[in-house]
Structure formats: structure tokens, C-alpha cells
Design goal:
The complex is a heterodimer of chains A (533) and B (288). Chain A is built from 16 helices and 20 strands. With 533 residues, chain A is of the alpha+beta class. Chain A folds into 3 domains: 112 residues, Periplasmic binding protein-like II (D-Maltodextrin-Binding Protein, domain 2); 109 residues, Alpha-Beta Complex (Dipeptide-binding Protein, domain 1), CATH 3.90.76.10; 222 residues, Dipeptide-binding Protein, Domain 3 (Dipeptide-binding Protein, domain 3). In chain A, helix 13 runs antiparallel to helix 14 and helix 14 packs antiparallel against helix 15. Chain B has 288 residues and is mainly alpha-helical. The chains are: A alpha+beta (533), B mainly alpha (288).
Chain lengths: 533, 288
Amino acid sequence: MKKIAFLVVLGLLVSLFATSGLVFAQEEAKFGGTLNIGITTDPDSLNPFISNDRIGSWILNNIYPTLLVMNQDSVKVPYVAEEIITSENGKKVTVKLKEGLTWQDGTPFTSADVKFTGELLYEKKLQWQADVFNEVESVETPDATTVVYNLKRSYPGFMGTFGFWQRIVPKHIFEDIENVREFANKEPIGMGPFKLVDFKRGQYYTLARVDEWFDSPAGKPYLEKIIFRIYPDVNTMVLALKRGEIDLTAKDIPFTAAQELKSNPNFTVKQTPSLGFVYIGFNYKNEFLKDDAVRQAIATAIDRKKIIMFALRGDGKLINTGISPVYGDVVNPEAKLPQYNPEQAAEILSNSGYEDTDGNGILNAPSGKDVVLELIYDGNDIYLKKTAQILVTNFQDVGLKLELVPLEKSTYSDLLFNQKKFDINLGGWGIIDEASDSMYTLYHSTASLNFMSLNSEKLDTYMEDARFASNQKIMQENLDEFQLEFIEEMPVVTLYVQQYNFAYSNDFAGFEIYPSDLKGLVDPQSLSQVYKK
Amino acid sequence: MTAKINETSLWKEFFKAFFKHRLGVIGLVGVIAIIFVALFAPMIAEPVSGYGDVADILKPPSLKHPFGTDDMGLDIFSQVVWGTRTSLKVGFMTVIIAAMIGIPIGLFSGYFSGLISTLGMGLADIFLTLPVLPLMIIMAALMGPDIKNIALIIGLFSWPQLARITRASTLSVKNMEYVVATRSVGAKTSRILFRHILPNVSASILVNMTIVIATAILTEAGLSFLGLGDPLSYSWGKILENAHQSGAFLSAWWFSFFPSIAIMFFVISFNFLGMGIREGFNPKLRNR
């Protein structure tokens, strides 16, 4: 008995010390320390113009700045820009840059760098965001910290796209490079909280802090070094985290690992929503799916809550319109996808003449044919696989037959984007930002990504008017109308927004989590404040 | 009349030897049990599909769910029982396809010498040297994940070993007096091959067929594990794949344990049965 009492007291003492230690450690943010970050592959390129993957973004965005960054509420805010001023008619966008910033070689950062970056991007079509410059008439740099973009017409998506996506490069270095596409950029000179000091492909990328950074609370980052370490797969990466080889994961971790780490006192697990969403898209060329009633019935038949419960183990958000709830203000609260209601779905179908006339358990269309539909999806994606499995049951419950066609990713893309040969596709968009622009690129009758062959005059008008709206208010009005009409038309059923899990070691503090797996805990805004306890 | 008597005594001897071989009997009992489970699956367990109850996600074995539940809240016992059907289907379809290709090729290339023999065995050799797994993966990806396709693919790559065994046995039989006699009477080649040679080489073929079935199940499990199985039918490999993908491979041991045991039981049963059959047919082994 005595022994037990002693143990209890000891335990209490230990936990007391542990908690008080935590409190103290949080108070004193000190300089020094190396943060090891787990990733699962090399970045596609170290060239800030060429890199187009998540890993590249994790590393390069800490070295090269963007004019805008996304804050924790998914709103784009100025970063190396001081402010963005849009004229009343929306045709003139003025960017004021922060004063006193310099590139890592000491050269001052000026408006000429920003202008040059845009010009090179457009001239060589280096990234998808080059397209927004189609609407630019001229660019002026009245002084060293001001860039003025004169647009052909008002285009609210312009700065959101260019400012958020395009890493600004130093003109004095890139103007001398003959072939920017081939440029490997092994010794990058950028401007960010960190600079690249060493790397070995397939193994690590070491970043060291700079001496001055405006976004760090102490004037420069606390961490001495950041090392991105490459692991062959997520499971190995999670093991390395548990062993203490790394302190943080840049890539999101599976929910089983997240659950386990949540109960481990040495780690903190943070969650952030995706900036994209998962959906099913209907091919309007299909004889059944072109019927409004069928699309509405399917939308009503899908139990989206169950999908989140089973496929994502609860780590998901419901999405009610074509626009993700992540962009709170842009979503029209009145636009709502139908609630799960199989009886009502069956009723919609029977009211439109769908009946099981041959008694085989599958509804027959008015033409007499069984309504059998194929669902194509990437068969290697575990979330989609489970979602598909649930969809089959949902369809079956209202008398529709859904056949699963899991495909290899490239075959899936080919069928969808090139051949447009499918009935229903189950897929996801990684990041959909700038709703005014992206809705147009997804659903406009002329858009190349509109593989559904959706052709709605009403939707087209709303999308065009939102895309080129002269001010925010007009843009939002059109987006609101668009969302209402979208639910009526139902060209796709949006299913869920995934929540990503990230974990870090409690030896470090100061992390902030930013939206999506593109940012997570390794956004420069987060890393420039992290410190070792 | 005499032939008839001989045949019965041959079978009698076979069974006598077979039942003396303990492993063979175990294999036979195992195979009968597997066939029984497959045939009466609807009476043993409710079929599962889609998703179950949220409260039932990854629950360990209990009275209600003797093998526990998976991450979709579905009963694993029922999946394993219904998976028996899938596995047997794949096994038998594969062996039929392999036999339809392999046995004739083996017979012809054993009976005839020269070009036909070279061609037949050449083809078998080529198939044996092919990197089978990547090819199967490509074919499964191209043809779509369906049980029939999976069986067809495995069958297409399993015939060479049957062909080789058939040929080897045919070679040793074709110059025996009774074959020469039949030939001298003027019997047609097809009659000689299928009426006279085939029954005499069937022992080793039969043994080999049990091995083909066992291997087919392993291959099907492998393909399913790689995500190329039929998405809606439950096979043992598919359960394993689900277990692996759920990330619960270690925490929910029952998820992968029971289908693994089923696969092991199946493979061992068929292999033991094959050993028993070989024992029964082989007079040299018999008199030990």
C-alpha cells in the first residue's frame, strides 16, 4: 500500500514538473536549434519558375517570396506587398511593396523585380498562372516600391492569382539566364526567412535562417536551420517522427497515425482543411444523366455524412455548393445541396417516369433501358475507393445501378480530359482558389476542364459576369446567383472537403497552421516564428 | 471386360495408397471443407456490401462478429466466407484455362518430335521467362478488374508448367508397346493422344493442377493486394489490401489475420492433396 501511495505522489510530482516546464518553455522563445522536417520525395525543381508541386512549394516558398499569402482564414493578404489598391472601375491594380527589403545577396528588392517576374512568366509561359496576363495591357513602375498593372478590363482574379501563386525572382540574376526552363538554380538567391545552404537529391535540403526578416517577431527567425529530409513513404516518415529523427511532417499523415500521435504527449496534431474538394461529375452526353431528374435524384440519394464518417473517418467537412466552405464569405448560405433522403430521390425518379418495368431491381428509363451507370476513379486512392463503395449502395437504394471502374491514374485522366468517355467520374480538385476565376475554368461551356459538356446559358452568364466584375460586390452577387443555379443544374455533386492532419514534436513551439497540404505547418509565416523549447 | 477389371483394381490401389498418406487425407478434408464453405456460403453468413454501422468500425472479434469488423463497419467473418467462393472460382477457372492450353500443347510437343515439339516448348519457355507479375499488372489494368479477367490472366500465365509436365510424361509413354500397337492398327493420332496417352499421363497432370490452383489463389491475393482485384467482390486478397490501406495493419490484427489464415489453409490443403494424389499414383513411392 505504501509503495502505491509513494508512486502516486511521485507521479503527481512528475506531471506537475512536466506541465510547469511546458509553461516556462512557451514563454521564452529563444534563438537556435535545428528543425527536421519529413517529406516523401524531392521537389520537382529548385527553379522557382518551374517548380509546380507541393514539395517545391514547401521549400521554395521559404526562399522566394510571393506578393500575397493566405492567412489562417483562407483570405489572401499582402506579404512582401504592403498593400494592393484596385481602382474603382477595376482596371488599374496598384501594388505597393514593403520598403527596405533586400535579396539574399544584398541587392535591394524593387518594383522592377516584380515587373520582370510577370513579364518573363508571360513571355515564356512558364506556369499556368501566366494566363492571367492575357488581360494585362501595360505595366508601369513609377517608383522603386510601386507596380501598376493596367488591365484590358476589370479582372478581380488577376492579383489573387499572380500575387498568391507566383514567386517573385531577382531580376539581376534571372535576366542573364538564357534558358529559364532549363535553369537548375542550384544556388538560389532569394528573399525569405531562410536560404538554401546545402542539398543532396534524394536525401535532404538544408535551409539556414537569414539575418533579417520582417515577418519574424524577433526580426529574424528563431531557428538556426531547417532540414527537409526525404523518406520513401508516409509510413516510414511517421516512424521517423516517432523516433525523433524528424520534428515535423510537411506531408499530411494518415488518420490512423494522427489518432495514435494525438494520444502521445510528445506530439501535437493539427488539422487543416483542403483548399479543394472531392466530387462526382456527370457526363451530359450520357442518355440518362442529361435528364435533370436523374442528376437531382442522385444528389439526393448520396449520404455524404456517411462518406465522411467511413472514407475519411470523420476528417472531412460537408460542402454545400460548388464553392468550398473554406472560403466562408464567398459561399452563398442559401445555396444548399439536397439533404440525404433516399425516399425523396426515389420519388423524383418515379415522378419522371423511371420505373422497374422488368422487375430486375434496376429502374428502367422512360426509353425502357435499365439505368446502369459506370463510375470511373483513380483506383489507388484509398479515400476515393471507399467513397465509391458507399456510392454503389446509395445508388442501389434508389434503384440505380452503379458499376465501379477503378482505373490507373493516367488512364483515368485520359478518359476524362482527352476522350471524355465516361458516365460519372469521382475525383478531386487539389486547390480551387479565386472562385470568380476558377468556376469559369471548371464549368464554362467553353472551358477545357468542363469535361461534363455542361452547357448552361444562365451559369455561363453568371460566371462571365463574376470573372470580369468591376468590383467585389458585383462579383459576389454573380457568384451568389451562380451557386443557386448550380444546385438547380447539378452538373457535379460536391461530396466533401478533406481535413489534413499534421504532427509536430513538442520540443518545438510557435507553429501556425495554414490551409491545405500546400501550406500546412511549413508555410513561411509559420516557420519564421517557430522556436526550439 | 478385362480392361474394366484392371481399371477398378487400379483405382482401388490408388485409394488404398492415398488414404495411407496422412497429409493427403488432411489435404482432402481441407479441400472438401473449402468447397463446402463455398457452396453453402449463403447459409453460413450474410453477404456484405457497401458499408455497415459507424459504431462497428474496426471492432475486435466478438460473438456477433467472430472475426471482428473492418474499417467500413462490415463483418470480416462473412467476407472470409464469401471470399472462399471468389477464391475457388479463380482457382478452378484458372486451372481450366491453363489445362485447355497447356495439356494439348504438352501432348502434341511430346508425341511429335521436330518442329511442333520445338515450337510448343519454345512457346512455353518464352512464357516461363516473361516477367509475369508486371505483365499481369498491366493486363489487369487494361482489361479491368473483374474476377473472370483475373482468372483469365492468371490462367494465361500458368499453362507452361502444365505443358512441360504433360510433355515429359508423354515422352516416356509414347514408345510403350500399347501405343505402338494402337498406332500399328491405324488409329488416328487424336485418338492415340487423347484416348490412350492422356489417361496414362493424367496422374502427374492432376498433381500439377492442384499446385496451379494453389498458386492461382496466391497470385489473385497478390493482384488484389495491389489494388487490381474486383472492387465489389470480396476475396481474401482484397480484405488484406483493405487492411493494409486502412493503416490499421498493426492495431487491428484481426483485419489481416483471418484472411491470411484462410489463404494459408487453402494453399496448404491443395498442396497436401496434390502430394496425396502423387503418392497414390506412384507405385515406386507406394511400396515403401
